[in-house]
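input
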Amino acid sequence: MGRAEDRGQVLDCQPFARACCTCFYQGEVSMVTEHTTATTEPRPILLQLDMVMFTAMLGLLSLGTLAVYSATSKAFVESPTESLTNHLEHIAVGAIAFIVALFIPVRFWEKSSKFLLPLSAILLLLVLVPQIGDIKNGARRWLKVFGFSFQPSEFAKFAFACYLASYLSKRLTILKDLIAIVPATFVFAIIAISLYEQPDAGTIMILGGILVLSLIVGGARIGFLGAIFLLLMVGLLCMIWFSPERFGRVVGWLIPWATRQGEGYHLFSSQLTISRGGLLGTGLGMGMDHALNFLPLAESDFIFAVASEELGVIGISVIALFYIAILYRVLTIVKTAQDTFYQLLAFILSMTILLPAVLHMFVSVGIMPTKGLVLPMVSYGGTATVFSMFTMGVLQRLYSEVSLQREGENG
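output
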């Protein structure tokens, strides 16, 4: 087939990213928000942090901590701060992961992607081993090692993102050929089968969305994208049809008020909680769920509903703006980076955070059927929090390297 030697080729934000960039940028965009005079000595990598992304991360973690405490303090009467303490421990580990990511060169992820993906597949299979696979809420999605639980699907999202960025960056000129997108689709199918056995339909949806968006950015033919999307929809319908639990969730989604005592209880409770928020919210710790603890998994799967009730429209708008700020800065990297892999890695990694955030909000308000999805950096969840912060560290490293390259060119 012959690989295209386009290492230096710059992804011209095509075609999806160009549309996104047009929405955010008019004219030339500078990677450095406060640029004075160019110096011959580049600044240390840690001084190149993008403060917009960093502030957005801190804002999400702060609001999430408040929401988690409110959602759990009445649920555990004997130890009302237990979940809060655990959540803060997760953030502390995530902070270490964030700092570690700052010191790892971006090229490392390109070179190691061929090893990360098989490792993630092995970990997903190990979950199915009874001796080490841990069952929570009826699903076998965790590995329990030395008393600690770890969710391999979060690692799989990161590994899949690195693989896609590496694979697509070498094949941009031939993505319009069907044979070029088959390997990536096959890899997704293998991971999806492993996730189906857990079962984890939510992560399958996220990875499928990441695959389609990545191919759109890479410039694959619309016909091929349509075929992949159709296959994803067929697979999703089969998962729903052959699972009474998922079928019941769809029924509850279609008629939540009529099924509020059964399949629609989660969605009914979520919508009821959100409806009480109004513009300013009821105030932290003053929500109905805080008092009655009737919303299942409020600290994780429905944290957006808790925030909506207690912080109101203004509060959840701030949360949404933090995610939009992350997208804005990622598009800055996509537009200014001179390397295709950097562009693709920035975009795809951001989707591992932003896509779950959108889906979580959709589930909470009833746009989508109920599915257990966390709100990145807001919901309670150890592995999800750590990997989200680690991903933010990689994005910061991307920004830093691109910024240093620009300073070198200007110097």
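quick obs: Residues 1-9, 13-42 have pLDDT under 50 and may be disordered.
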